[in-house]
Amino acid sequence: MLDKTRRGWWKSAVFYQIYPKSFLDSNGDGIGDIRGVIEKLDYLEKLGIDGIWLSPVCDSPQVDNGYDISDYRAVWPAFGSMEDMEALIREAKKRGISIIMDLVLNHTSHRHRWFQEALKGRENPCHDYYIWRDGEPDAPPNDMQAAFGGSMWTYVPDLKQYYFHQFAPQQPDLNWENPAVRRELYDMIRFWVDKGVEGFRLDVIDQIAKEPDRRITGNGPRLHQFLEELSREAFIEEGLVTVGEAWGADVERARRYSAQDGRELSMVFQFEHICLDQQPGGEKWDWIPLPLVSLKRCMERWQRGLHGQGWNSLFLNNHDLPRIVSRWGDDGKYRVESAKMLAAMLYGLEGTPYIYQGEELGMTNIRLPIEEYDDIEIQNLYTGRLSRGYREEDVMAAIYARGRDNARTPMQWSAEPYAGFSRVKPWLPVNPNYREINARAALEDPGSVFYFYQTLIALRKRYPVFREGEFTLLEPESEKLFVYTRETAEERLLVICNFTGESVPYQRPAEFAGAWLLLGNYGTAAETLRPYEAQMFYGRKQA
Ligand code: GLC
Ligand code: CA
């Protein structure tokens, strides 16, 4: 167990993201719940994780699956009760697992009491909790487009005003310029810290300091000021870990967010690597095959850029992204090999890794008829693109490749009906491959992706080079291999990953001649790398 009283304990930690709606349904209503998470704590302990990032469980009309909160201090009844949350925090702690809550501070649900009050009139004290502009119908203040399609402005005829929302109209943006809003949010955070929560993931945190009149959404001028205040007022607790979702972060910005003086955040989720397989100027739906050389350059920039000056988060998956084996690996013949290779590539790096539920099983993307998708983003894309003249098959292909429901299908626990996720038909279909890909099968197979993750997690704790080693990229121009080293004064690590389904020869650098194979996804290491082979070599330097 990690000693969490130590400063920066989270640098040695591995976190596991749970999307509760899809994790485990304990009471047979087809929806995952908090009791379901408690039931699987032993499984997570076995994997070796130190904390759970729990996607939002607060009360919500679920327009965006809980990222639209109507009451920050209550649990959505389908997920359970406040007692269940308290039990989860307690039971997790017993196993050395911290609960990290998801904080949605940029916006609330339109059903939140503040917004309902705000609608009552301009004189209402809550009116200024949101962002309003006077106007006439059909003439929004500007033409900014919301993340899920449509305008960022919605008109309220009774008030003759538009309110601002970067996401769905049911997710009005909070007005961070108003000190009363910030105070409410800090108090709410303290409420959860008092319950024993040990950290937070901050939803779209670089979008809180918006200035809509200047068309600024991300990285607004007052962002760092707000973050410093937030950290001072709400996160002062020693040892709280904070990770901000920052789509707009580049290395320089991330250095400031995660500068290790505790002024802002512990680390951020940046998305540069995730956006590389996207057509320049296109949207995420307009994808291209992964340019491996750019991925390596990108990782190098982040590894070197934050070394000693900030801290990286490491991830390939979350509830908004397609499954990584289907994306950068091979979800057919080499599913197991490629899932392990991608893990080795990531877990050899400096930073704090995040596993998304099912990633440790090598879960894959799904294809559904359009009416079976739940995600608001998918549904809006479909109608939006069809109305703009796109061909249906192209739109569906984009959804198969990039849709968020790929990540949200129920967790595959066993080969029983509905994958052991629920006794009844789940809220979103189970991937038909659950008979083969499931946790029970993985636990019975010593060669499974699960045990590979378990080993990687254990290795990271055992050898300081994983935490401190300096990164060097080798073979930068190779379009097939991703090779890098990590080095401290005493240790060296070499990570070799074959990103293709072909055999690729590779000669290890001389200084690794005496090194030993710490881990490989084919057991022994050969000089010619087999399809999707990954090898990790470790050596001690002579004194
Ligand atoms: C974040 C969440 C995503 C959500 C959005 C709006 O990007 O990860 O799921 O839809 O914010 O809250
Ligand atoms: Ca349930």
Task: Describe the overall structure.
The chain has helices spanning 34-39, 41-47, 82-94, 113-118, 179-194, 223-234, 251-257, 292-306, 324-327, 335-347, 376-387, 392-402, 405-408, 439-444, 449-462, 465-468, and strands spanning 15-18, 51-54, 58-59, 71-75, 98-103, 132-134, 153-156, 161-164, 199-202, 241-245, 267-269, 313-314, 352-356, 470-474, 481-487, 491-498, 504-505, 516-520, 528-529, 534-540. The strands form five sheets. It has an eight-stranded parallel β-sheet with strand order 11-10-9-5-2-1-13-12. A five-stranded antiparallel β-sheet has the order 14-15-16-20-18. The chain has 16 helices and 20 strands. By secondary structure, the chain is an alpha/beta fold. Helix 7 (251-257) runs parallel beside helix 8, helix 10 (335-347) runs parallel beside helix 15 and helix 11 (376-387) packs antiparallel against helix 12. The longest helix is centred in the middle third of the chain and has 16 residues, at 179-194. Helix content is 28%, strand content 16%. A hairpin with a 6-residue loop joins strand 14 and strand 15. Calcium ion binds at residues 25-27, 29, 31, 33.
Shape, principal axes of CA atoms:
globular
How many beta-strand runs?
A: 20
First and last CA, distance: 31 Å
How many DSSP H or I helices?
Answer: 16
| Percentage of residues in strands | 15-25%
The biggest sheet amounts to: 8 strands, parallel
How much helical structure, as a percent, in the residues?
25-40%
**Mean pLDDT, nearest integer?**
97
- Rounded to an integer in angstroms, the radius of gyration calculated over CA atoms is 23 Å
Spatial order of strands in the largest sheet: 11-10-9-5-2-1-13-12
Give a list of the ligands.
alpha-D-glucopyranose, calcium ion
Secondary structural class? alpha/beta
Low-confidence stretches: none
